[in-house]
Amino acid sequence: MNNFPISTIRRRFTSLQGPFTYLDAPGGSQVPDEVGEAIADALREAAANLGAGYPSSNRAQAILEAAEANAAALLGCGPEEVTFGTNMTTLNFALTRTAARDMQPGDEILTTALDHDAGVAPWLELAEDRGLVVRRVEILPDTTLDFEDLQSKLNNRTRVVAFAWASNAIGTVTDAARVCQLARDVGALAWVDAVHYAAHEAIDVRRIGADVLLCSPYKFFGPHLGLAYVAADVSASWRPYKARPTPNTPLGRRLSTGTFPFELLAGFNATTDYLKSIGGFDAIAPYERALGQRFLSGLPDTVTLYGLPTMEGRVPTFLINVSGLDGTELARHMVGQGIGVWAGDTWYALDLYQRLGYERTAVRIGFVHYNTAEEVDQALAALASASDQS
C-alpha cells in the first residue's frame, strides 16, 4: 500500500483537490483531467463523420480505431469483438434483442439474485414479447451465488445465463469462469454484467469463457459510454437491428446502431492511457483491497454490514446501516462531515434487496484507487459519531 503513488494520482483529478471526500464511486467515479481534455480536443479537431477523407474525418477514424484497440486490450479480446453504445443498459437492450431473434417460446434465460436490473429487465421484456421463460438463480445466506441452484436450473432449453460478475450493491464477486463453463456445458450463452467488476479488477474474457460481456467506462474513471465484448463466432451468427447502410465490417461495428460518439471515445482512449500509466489493475487491486480491509477492521459495533464480512470474495463496495438511524439520516450525517455517499433502497438490485433485511434504505460506501487511508479513517470516524447521535 505504501508503494502506491496515491499523491501523484490524486493531483491528476481537479475534483479531488478540494476538502470534500468522494466515497460514491459505485454510482460513477471521478475522472482524471486528461480525460476531459481529450474530449474537448476531439470536439475541436474531430467534429466529422467517417469516410470523408479530410483531416477532421481522418481524426475521427483514428479515434475509433484506437478505441477499439484499447477496449480489446482492456477486455482481453480482438478489436473486431468490441462494440460501443450510449450506456450499458441501452446497449444491453439492443444486444439482447439481437440475440433473441432465433429463440422460441419456452426457451429459458437464467439471471441471478445478485444482478443489477440492467442485466435482468431486458430479458424480462423479451420474455413478455416472445414467450420466453426467465428463471432466477438464488444466493446463499452469505450472499454468494448458489451453484447447486444454478446447476439444478440448467437444462436443454437454457439459452442464456446472465449474471453480474460483482454486485453493485454489496460488492460480492461471483466465480465468472465457473458460471461461464456451466452455461457452455448446456450450449447456452454466458452473458456477463461486468459494470461493477471493471472498476476494481482486470478482465480477460477468454480466461473466463464469456460469450458477451458489458461494462461502463464512467464507472472506471472515464466518460459515459456503454462498452461490450461479443465473441466473434457469436456476433457473426447474429442479424443485428440496425440502419441498413451502416458498416458491416469490422465485425463489431455490425452491432452499432448509428454514428459513434467520437469525443467520448477520445475520452475513453485517455482513460485507458491513464490506467496503463499507473500500473493498471495489477497495481490498483491490491491497494483497493487494503483500503477495504482497513474499513472492515475499523467498523463500529453499531454498524450493520450487508454482505461478506471480509475482503475475500468481494470488491471494496459496502452496504451498511447504523443502529437507530435510517439510511437517509446516515447519508445526511456523512455529507455533513464532508463525505459523499448515497442512501438508497434497492440499488437497482431488486431481487437482492428483498433478501438483505433492511426496511427502507441503506448507505453504500465505495472505495476506489484514488481514495486514501485517511479518507477511510474519516469515514469510520463519521460512522462512529453517527452511532453516538443515534
Query: End-to-end distance, in Å?
Result: 34 Å
Q: Could you say what the CATH architecture of the largest domain is?
A: 3-Layer(aba) Sandwich
Strand content: 5-15%
Strand order of the largest sheet: 2-8-7-6-5-3-4
Q: Return the average pLDDT rounded to an integer.
A: 96
Radius of gyration: 21 Å
- The count of strands amounts to 13
Features:
390 residues; alpha/beta; Aspartate Aminotransferase, domain 1; Aspartate Aminotransferase, domain 2; 2 domains; 7-stranded mixed β-sheet; 4-stranded antiparallel β-sheet; 14 helices; 13 strands
Write the topology of this structure.
Blueprint: H1 6-10, E1 21-22, H2 33-45, H3 55-75, E2 82-85, H4 88-99, E3 108-112, H5 121-130, E4 133-137, H6 147-153, E5 158-164, H7 176-185, E6 189-193, H8 205-208, E7 212-215, E8 226-230, H9 232-237, H10 262-277, H11 280-298, E9 303-306, E10 317-322, H12 327-336, E11 339-340, E12 342-344, H13 350-356, E13 362-366, H14 373-389
Parallel strand pairs: 1-11, 3-4, 3-5, 5-6, 6-7
Antiparallel strand pairs: 2-8, 7-8, 9-10, 10-13, 12-13
Helix pairs in contact: 2-10, 3-10, 4-5, 11-14
